[in-house]
């Protein structure tokens, strides 16, 4: 089943609608959706290493725009939508500590958590809730999300064929490793927030 999904995403990468799907997932992941854009960005960049930079730009712009939606949810709808989303991911009892961290380390929180597998929506919603400066939020989001996606694009652009061969030979192991990174990121978030 994993191989079929991988083959489907690789084949889908050649379609004209693939960049739109990447944009949608990147946007939604920054505010409400649990799946990171890497799920599309990696296979799309492996299928077309010559377009890896373009895909990173799409993911960055869409992620920052989605982050603005997350910020708005935190600033305007925290009691209804924001609290629901934070509780859905199991971070409800950590929000006050996270908000207090913004008083001292807001810029570092955005920069560090935007690069990690910790759900970025947690950062965006809490930034709005904590009334973090919107201008700085946008600048830091561009830096951190851009760095994350462009580093990945650089690796896939330069090592794409070798990486694709490695991944295709060891798809199960690579998937397990990525899953472990995501789980460790969520566990780290639970303890660090």
From TrEMBL:
Keywords: Membrane, Transmembrane, Transmembrane helix. It comes from the Bacteria. The chain crosses the membrane at residues 20-43, 55-78, 134-159, 171-192. It holds the Pfam family VTT_dom. Residues 51-155 form the VTT domain. This is Membrane protein YqaA with SNARE-associated domain.
